[in-house]
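Example (one chain per record):
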Amino acid sequence: MTDAMAVHGGIERVLTDKINWLAENTGFNVYLLTVDQGKNDVVFSLHPNVIYQDLGVFFFKQYNVPMWRRWSIRRRLHRLFQQSLKEKISEIEPDVIIFTRLDYIQDLEKVNGKIPLVFESHSSCLSSVFEHDCLLRQVSIWYQKKALRNVNAVVALTEGDAAEWKKRINNVFVIPNVVQLNSAGCICNRESRSIIYIGRDSVQKDLDSLINMWKIVFQKHPDWNLHIYGKTRRFSSGVVVHEPKSNMDDAYINASLLVLTSLYEPFGLVLPEAMSYGMPVVAFDCPYGPAEIITDGVDGYIIKNRNLMEFANRVCQFIEDVNMRVRMGNAGIQSSQRYRAAIIMPQWINLFEKIVDNSI
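Predicted structure:
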């Protein structure tokens, strides 16, 4: 269960890939429930065996009214959510319920009965701290995390994030994301003078650092371009902005390097995706994804202490040495294979079996 499948985002793509794999490769009845999809199209294609339903709660409506009315609207929406959940759980009778939004936990615990709950964390345990959220928001999240003590399992994407969850709750497991590896079946253009960034414009992604880094690089190499795939109004010389899209094959094939400047990353999906196309990558050593995906100096570079000049220098190294791009890109093809569905999804099957057998 998730909020919606209406945007071309990493979470939506990963969930679709995992759900489709389960529908195609197991005998499970696989249901996908969304809460706020409404009339929006599901952006990634679902396997015919996936049973999809939207609850139509629309939590975002609470933000369309003045502040003084939000509490009552929010309360009404949560009652609707609980009633809709209760009806669907009674209809489906699932063996396991997986949810991806922390703020669903309190409603789920009121209606799930004895059905096991699994929280699949696609945001860092400390995201509210990393983003300097207000005290009220941090307290709210603290209560939600406290409620997670009663779930059967919390699945983190990295060892680093799992270590933070384990300080608060038991039954934490690490299962990395399934990555859609090189669906085009060919490597990137190592002679291309294009660098790519893929992601939304948010506090987490820190596009200010991306643009400032690029300004340093562009002064030395004005014949190169930075292609940003994601909605943003940030522009600079040599920057080309593209709308996000469901199939990124062309973006990967037509570039020779990928960069990521995030403040924190629960995983960093674009890193192994790019590596699978033979593309080296450069990323800040942020908590916690990049350092667990990139082998520094082998298939890319990890930049410590958010050192902008060092980041720019590493990018310039790749620009000036095509042989290094080839060598480290080839290493990335090999290292990215550990995120194939055939390797990751059996870990989920194993977790399901333990939960159903009451061994955790």
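Caption: DSSP finds 13 helices and twelve strands in the chain.
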